Every structure is written in C-alpha cells, then in structure tokens.
Amino acid sequence: MFSFLKGSKSKSPQAVSLAAIESDWHCHILPGIDDGSQNEEQSLEMLHYYVQMGIKKIVATPHVRADFYKNTHETITAACQKVQKLIQSHNLPLVLEASAEYYADENFFELITHGQLLPIENQYILFELPMQNASLWGVKLAEMLQKKGYTPLLAHPERYRYWHNKPKEWSLWKNNGVCFQLNLLSLTGFYGAAERRAAEQLLEADYIDAVGTDAHGLRHLQKLSELTQNPLFENIQQLPLLNRLG
Predict the structure, then answer these.
(1) Of residues 212, 205, 213, 210, the one with CA closest to residue 242
(2) Which residue in 48, 127, 194, 234 is deepest, having the highest Cβ count within 10 Å?
C-alpha cells in the first residue's frame, strides 16, 4: 500500500539533523482528526522523514478546540494507536506519545476542571492563545494548570504578533512559571520575517524551554532543511531543552 514511498524519498530535500534535539514536542501527525495529517499514508511519510532527521520520540499534539477540533481523550488515543501500528509494522525506531495542543477557550477550562488532560511527560500541558487578539483566558488557564500540579507550556510565543516589540509581555509570562515552546519553522521564516525575528529574540533572551516542528505534513518537515541557514540553529542544539530524553 505504501510502496511508493521508497521512490519518493530520494526526491526529498536533504533532511536536517535534529538528533541533538531528540524529540518533537509539537506536531500534527495523527491522521484525520485536525488540520494535520489527513490519512495514514501522510502520517507514514512523516514518520519516515522523522527517522531521517534523527528524531527518536514524537509527541503528537492534535488541536483541541471548542469550535473546530472537538477532540477528546478517546479520539486522540484511537488515532495514536493507528500511528503506533505504522511504527511497529515498518520497524521504525520511534517512540510515540499522545498529547494535545489545547486552545485557550471554555472547553480547555472544562478539561482542566474535570482532569481530562493529556500531559507531555506526565507534566507539561501545551496550549495556544488566539493569533489575532490577546485573551484574558490565557492567564487564568495557566494559573489553573499550576494549581492542578501541571506546568503550562505555551506554544509558539513568537507567533503572537500582538506581543511583538513588547518584551515585557514575554517576561511577565516567564516570571509566572510558564514555559515557552518555539516552532523550529519560525527560524526558517516560514510564518514571516516578523515571526522569525521574534523567535530569534526569544532565543537571545534565553526564554525557550522546548522546541517543536508544529509539522502538519511532510512539507513542513522538509522545510526544516533551511534551518542550517540560521546561525541560531547551532545555539538551539546546545540548550538544555525539555525535549532531551532522560
């Protein structure tokens, strides 16, 4: 069924090595449950490319939102089992963990209240804020997570343009115990020059605790080949990231 993949690999860009980073803490590889991989063929393409990049562990983080992606523990676990079968049947040297990227909304509030979360490494909860406008939900939800014993992990802070040129906003969140997860794609300019610069500023301020690809498909993983063009990529590989496998 997937025999065509062998022929397609040679046409892919040279995969960047992420062996020093070891694991991807933000990706959309689970098939058919959000705007990431749409089927098992696409998931398998991504899995093969992860191996080429030297990644050893993948944390699948499908969107969980009250409006568009009403994923639950059950839908995520079921999709994760499909990918786990692909890993096993193709003898890929990868470990897979199921988590989520929670959107700061009323649904997230309910999930925290009722203890229905899928933490990374049993500790970290990845969540995202609105892209267009700042939300008061974020601060409240982060506090709730901490009271429950979790560590809030904010997804791609470099992408919130309303924080650009406002370093005090970043420091406020960091000072309140929120960890930051950087999208590696931001360093390639994939989201825009402003996001790239914000990512570089966060790295220079030593604010980054974890990194992820935020890959929604093979094209995003291939785009990472451009990471070598950013001098800060070498710095990332030396950081004591939470991604490191213990």
Answers:
(1) 210
(2) 127
